[in-house]
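quick one, 84 residues, struct below
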Amino acid sequence: MTALEQSRLEREIVEKFQQLPPDSQIRVLSQIQPAAATTHFDYARWYEDAAAFQDELRREHGADFIVPVQNILDEVREEASWLR
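---
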């Protein structure tokens, strides 16, 4: 799975999660949180994935492709908003 496909899948999961009623969201989170708490964050893997995603964007949009900072901030805020 490419980084772009993974990102799309994550967005789809978040969108579906947000459609659930609150009691279902709590049940889903109770299943996910224990796994997330015991998962070690692999910084090397994260960097490799970020570099692969960057390469993919360059292939698709050209070497001079730049994402405006505001777009990045908006995306981060959107992703973080479902955690509240």
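Residues 3-81 form one domain.
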